[in-house]
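Internal QA ticket QA-208
Title: Verify multi-chain structure generation after dependency bump
Assignee: T.L.

Test input:
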Amino acid sequence: MFIFVRMHSTVKKSRKVQIEEKATTLFREKGYAATSMRDLAQVLGIEAASLYSHIKSKEELLQKICFRMADRFFDAWKEVETEQNSYAAKMQKAAIAYVQVITQNTDASAVFFNEWRHLSEPHLSKFLSMRNDYEGRFIEIIEKGIAAGEFQQVDSKFMMLAILSSLNWTHNWYKPNGKLSPEDVANKLSNLILNGLKK
Amino acid sequence: MFIFVRMHSTVKKSRKVQIEEKATTLFREKGYAATSMRDLAQVLGIEAASLYSHIKSKEELLQKICFRMADRFFDAWKEVETEQNSYAAKMQKAAIAYVQVITQNTDASAVFFNEWRHLSEPHLSKFLSMRNDYEGRFIEIIEKGIAAGEFQQVDSKFMMLAILSSLNWTHNWYKPNGKLSPEDVANKLSNLILNGLKK
DNA sequence: TCCTGTTGCTAACGAGCGTTAGCATGTTTA
DNA sequence: TAAACATGCTAACGCTCGTTAGCAACAGGA
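Actual output:
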């Protein structure tokens, strides 16, 4: 057995982690409801019943994926709080932090954005309130930016939705091995948001 | 029996149309895979087996919803072709036409954007090629706008994705009876796209 | 009046679902 | 060496799935 975590490539992943990873991929590709435990078992080369030696339920997998992503987004926000110059700069930092989380976890992001509605209570409510919290942080930046005279006078909630939706979409096309780094993507997007398409 | 189509409110809808409408709502709320024919039958007050006097299969419902939306998007594009002034104006017209289709069909839009992957072949391929066609039209406007010196020099495909994603998101929050008209939404969004958030 | 179309039912089909029980094997830890 | 853990199996549970067969009631048009 290897010593725990030496290099990424040589880590022996626990079966549980392997299951979670394959589940993430499958949930992304086929959707949560359309992915069966037998599908999941098959890609791991075991029987469906064997999965239950490692996990509690199918939904537990979804919960792990969704709330782990939520944690990553909140963690990334710490970067935003360090920014003290302008609200434009703060918005840019928020976009960069956000896009970085997405591009570093494209499969989990897709599940996070598309499959959360299959969470049961009370997880669903918790998820929605976290999302609400996060969206509020973007609204706050926009509103303070308007008050400070930096931004156009726009409907802040409306603008938050437009901005986040273009950031959220990133997981659908971003290729981790492509020519664009997460920073490139985030910078291009925040440039579009702040300055628009026109010259 | 009423004469066919006199007023919206007094039209006697065929059972088939009623089924398609309820299916659209359910597919939107629960997702295609998680919606059962028994669910659908229940909201109509009939037995699941009775549905099959009117429709061929569950997937046929999804196909109808998806391709009817696709038709609406292509229809709406005719408006864009009439615009001859500037590429900014053309982009604005495209955004308006697009958002109008979405806001006038929020449930069907949600299904169109989220459930298309459950289409089987050859419908899936047809769907994807139509989407590709449509995206290409946005790319063309962006590229010609850049060539004409109207737009910043940006990656046109990247920009198309960012723009469409913020338009696509509209169905998630738009309230048909709210204070914003489809035109309002479209104008605000195209203003953001063209001019950005900054003053 | 007969025909055709619309609408709906009950009963049932084979298949797949998530999950549990109970057991076996090998590996690590004490 | 013994206990504990990790990993996997077969068999099966109760349930739901989409769908079909066959039949019945009623409407509108010829």
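Spot checks passed. Residues 66-197 of chain B form a domain with the Tetracycline Repressor; domain 2 fold (CATH 1.10.357.10).
Status: verified.
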